[in-house]
Amino acid sequence: MSAVVQQQESPQSPGSWPGGDGGNWPRYPRLYEAIPDSGPTSGGNTVLLTGAGLQGTSQVTFGGIPATIVAQDPSGGSVTVVAPPHTAGTVQIIATTPRGNTNSVSYTYTIAPPTGPTVTALVPSSGSTAGGTAFAIIGTNLTGATVTFNGVPATGVSINPMGTVLTGVTPPGPIGNVPVVVTTPAGSTAVAGGYTYTAPPPVVTSLSPSSGSAVGGTAFVITGSSLSGAVVTFNGVAATGVSVNASGTALVGFAPAGAPGNVPVVVTTPAGSTTVAGGYTYTAPPPPVVTSLSPSSGSAVGGAAFVITGSSLSGAVVTFNGVAATGVSVNASGTALVGFTPAGAPGNVPVVVTTPGGSANVAGGYTYV
CATH for 289-368, among 3.40.50.720, 3.30.450.80, 2.60.40.10, 3.30.70.100? Predict the structure, then answer.
């Protein structure tokens, strides 16, 4: 406590202190000390002023700037105030009472070291490995911050004037969870939970060909990106023989059978789905064409092997006088068909080849003998 109490410039006349012992006392209010005797330049901290004769204090100034009075001791032994802001340095505190101003006591304003950033939220907490995801970080003391995802700086970083919201765009990154670090001139902090990179959904740039026979089996190629692990459906029916290259940029397969007309084609990976623009158009298969039947005659008991040549024979059934042949099989190119004749009455009978594309009569028929 200060041992010296300074007298104000206009001293009051001697007299008894209110409630005192009746002796003659200088009727001057006094300050002894400020607790604490220093604080930040921003002010806002509570300061206890001890002294005597401080009853009815109406104002307290720090270097001439009024403080906020929050409490007073009824006996005049103290006043509690909230320090106002002030530039750095030592100032004098003076209290004003009904009996005049007090002596002054010293108070030092100091510049507080900057406080490091804090983060309360990162939104969203996941996004594509390709980067480019807009994000926001909520926290405090973010002014001047940079942000890294797995050590790679985010782009387009912007911070609001209060330093509580930071926005930016994620850089590319590997699949999985990575650390996110916010750094300011005052320090760094890691974002709790980090950020999870996920595989991007598939992208399709082309489907070739975009049409094929309704019987299915048409080979196709899809190009794009992020196609790894894909399955492909035509109108909800899975394509067969699907295979994707190592870079995930090309996919091959065979179209399933479908009804004539345009149908949706969907590529699905673990990261999502995409619909192929324009879809796929199923076309009615061409009718079968028969160029020969060999042999053209055989036993009426049936069971004779025969060969039909021509084109567009895939999926064919063959009838002899309306009775289906057995063991019918067609080669991959649809140009040759083999089977066994059914039994029939002696004589010449019509032979009809039927496929999904239509029917064709074999010229000359077949003669049972």
Answer: 2.60.40.10
